[in-house]
Amino acid sequence: MAFQLFPKEDKFFELFDKQAESILKTSLFFKELALSGKFDDVNVLKMHDFEHECDVNTHDIIELLNKSFITPFDREDIHQLAHELDDIVDMLYSITKRINLYKIQEINADLIQFSDYIEQAVTSLAKALRCLRKLKNVRPIIDSCIEVNKLENLGDQLKDAIIGKLLEGNPEPILFIKWKEIFEGTETVLDICEDVANVIESILVKQG
Amino acid sequence: MAFQLFPKEDKFFELFDKQAESILKTSLFFKELALSGKFDDVNVLKMHDFEHECDVNTHDIIELLNKSFITPFDREDIHQLAHELDDIVDMLYSITKRINLYKIQEINADLIQFSDYIEQAVTSLAKALRCLRKLKNVRPIIDSCIEVNKLENLGDQLKDAIIGKLLEGNPEPILFIKWKEIFEGTETVLDICEDVANVIESILVKQG
Amino acid sequence: MAFQLFPKEDKFFELFDKQAESILKTSLFFKELALSGKFDDVNVLKMHDFEHECDVNTHDIIELLNKSFITPFDREDIHQLAHELDDIVDMLYSITKRINLYKIQEINADLIQFSDYIEQAVTSLAKALRCLRKLKNVRPIIDSCIEVNKLENLGDQLKDAIIGKLLEGNPEPILFIKWKEIFEGTETVLDICEDVANVIESILVKQG
Fold this sequence. Notes:
Three copies of one chain form a homotrimer.
Chain A: H1 7-36, H2 41-67, H3 75-101, H4 109-131, H5 139-168, H6 173-207
């Protein structure tokens, strides 16, 4: 039987990987909805299940944190990481509910583009989290974080371009309010992804 | 003369109880305004007095925290608790000012319903804070926190229902903007109440 | 050669002074834009350069923090101070981009007034930060923080007055949305300045 010095440290990485997987599934489902335009009641409920799954994962991480004396990195970083990962899914659920409430049923190319950026950002975060186990090789972690920063920038530009385009068409005000809110939501998802990347980078610096 | 081992610990509980009482008074006043529709200049000033009273309470808690070596629970939890309790009243004041600015004078049934949820949530938080003194009996604390979570869910559903209803009536855009902002505000109050409940629950876990 | 006991402590003050100077330059540039109404593409790029300069300064402070065992005040206060100072400039950049996107080219007296409040608040913060070196003389620090609180209050009143004025004119909804967003942005800048002042005051209390 092998001797495990810090079995709980491993547990943290396992829980973060599990959470990353749940978030990735959620972002893929959100992309499906964008592609099909089916933000209907049934799919809102499905999105709620994803949101709940991530809540449970977050709860497990915080509970382990509260019970652990030794942690693989700073307690406050684990805390922040757990909560910001949860925020990604909360935001995706909130956007889904809003599109449903606004009875938007068209397929929107810009929303598909945003859902793709989000999926890419979450994929990069999942990779960075997985690599936190081996801090001797920081290259893939840094590359993933840079990728997330790039995607956040792209999202920022896309949102501005969308709002500019909407305004040029002299839009019906209520419709403008609806779409503005939706795309500010999708951009916020990428902002939160960047926040997660920033926490990961600060973990690297402290261990460096 | 009885010997007090940690007199300052008692002081923390006293200050939190005082703050809970001030917030409860504020939420009752907000409900009165909703019931009467009188969000006039005089009542905005009265609400400002409540807001100032809670500011003073928050200041007293933080000052005690900065002066104390021994605290009844984690320093950061006391800090967060104090600031989030303050946020509840800041938000109620901000909504009151906004309704006044928007010259809304009608009595609105949904606003009354929200003010009732808020009063119930604040009552539950006050109870949970009072019970933090006796951590051996966690049941009433947990029940109060669950109650707050329920009310936050109800508020969330109510806000969505209100916005859906507004949209069905093909509303005048400026009026839609006004009411949307007001009800997003009242929902935010319940979100902050839930944040407070989450801090309280995390205190339980750490002491558990 | 003089012996320096805590050379790194000095370094923190130097970096904060540098950051304060960069933010002051940014707020002066924002005021220039308000005065000229030239929120054009070239000036958005210039504002981006300021924003990047402040990002670098923030990064330098956080890096020094992560490398230092001895810090002139609480680690979490340095962290919060650094990030909130950065938020001031992020917000000014975001407002600038928004005015550009909204193709607003008129010179607006209220925007000029706000840009003046912001410049005054940042000047006071710069003074308070400079005086943190000599904590024996707290008077100028406290006075500067009080000044920032006053300016935040003025900004709050100004924003409400502007929105009230806009509504009286029975505005075109899209135009109302644009200006409301811009002035909520400028008020948020002053809110963040007040947050910075609050951190500075809490540093005083802890050292007091």
